Amino acid sequence: MPELSKRTATFTDSVIRRMTRVSLKYGAVNLSQGFPDFEPPKEILDRLAEVTREDFHQYSITWGAQNFREALAEKQSRLMGRKIDPNSEIVVTCGSTEAMMAAMMTVTNPGDKVIVFSPFYENYGADAILSGAEPIYVPLIPPEFNFDPEVLEDAFRQRPKALILCNPSNPCGKVFTRAELMLIADLAKKYDAFVITDEVYEHIVYEPNEHVYFASLPEMWERTVSCSSLSKTYSITGWRLGYIIAPASVVDTAKKVHDFLTVGAAAPLQEAAVTGLKFKDDYYRDLKQKYTEKRDLFLKGLDDIGLRHTVPQGAYYVLLDISEFGYDSDLEFCEALAQKVGVGAVPGSSFFREPVNNLIRLHFAKKNETLYEALNRLDGIRRVM
Ligand code: GLN
Predict the structure, then answer these.
(1) Does ligand 1 have an atom closer than 6 angstroms to the CB of 200?
(2) In sequence order, which ranges of the chain are alpha helices (DSSP H)?
(3) Are residues 228 and 293 in the same domain?
(4) Is the pTM of this model over 0.70?
(5) Which domain holds residue 223?
(6) In-domain check, residue 91
(7) Ligand 1 atom 1, closest CA
(8) For 12-27, how does the pLDDT look when each residue is reduced to its tens digit (9 = 90+)?
(9) How far is the CA of 176 from the centre of ligand 1 (A)?
(10) Atom number, ligand 1, closest to the C-alpha of residue 33
(11) Which tens digits make up the pLDDT trace of 242-291?
């Protein structure tokens, strides 16, 4: 038999998605892969029910249904402080996952370098491999997850084509300050690089932190490819609705990449999601409030058990320090945690470039009762681990 592609030879499967399967196997409360167990907004679901009987069963326009792009442009123009053109500056994709992949393929040539902050969401490594780009990792240093500007400039001196910016950040919960973003912006300009953002947690930010859209910084619109999705904002991760917002010159090419990759996002789901895109500001205020409560509830529970953890500024993940349990492998720890304690987590090593083995990631995008159940189980952790 002929060999499979060299490109895929260095791949493992996604550890995040694997841990969901491990959780299912042991009946664990799954706090690994980040998705909610509560319902999406009723208005969106009601519209979805109607849509099944309407004429939305064939392809939409490849780069997104007209009304979806118009509603999205309206919402994001308000947030990003710039009039976004729904026709020339948006591509609707199958989740932010496709948006990031399409952005990488639009911007980089095989052999180009891209800067990735570590820890990072594991897809970026695979995106780089698939597009032939070579990552340069710049550490975000715990516990604050700050970066050293000198180390970042050294990375830029290698003349990368782009920097990948996950803000708010998965898994460390960092929300980059305006000053940090300005520093990145200055370097992107000085070394003439693109910035590809992943801003899927844009609405999940805890006070007093604030989300600053990178594309909204002075002179950054031209060199930013903003990727995001509806998954986390409207609790519809399974709908796979994401998008790229960028200058027309970039979007023009991204539309072609997207067209040949997937043709388009699901037409009935785009139609139903327009309802969400039209929500007023109070929806986003309530969402922030809801996640703030969940964060506080979960962190207090961890404190009561005496487990050391990070305090996220944004997104819905917490990194737990497992040093006290003396495991060499965080992967083995997570298997045992699912089996013996009944809680699913993701080993930290799947996010860090550096040899970090003492952290695991849990998420709290769950009903309060699910979080209490997980905390109940974790309460017994020192007896079994
Ligand atoms: N972003 C989520 C996480 O990190 C899940 C994303 C996914 O599995 N597509 O867990």
Answers:
(1) no
(2) 15-26, 42-51, 66-80, 95-107, 123-131, 149-157, 178-190, 248-262, 267-277, 281-305, 330-336, 368-378, 381-384
(3) no
(4) yes
(5) 58-279
(6) yes
(7) 34
(8) 788 999 999 999 999 9
(9) 20
(10) 10
(11) 999 999 999 999 999 999 999 999 999 999 999 999 999 999 999 999 99
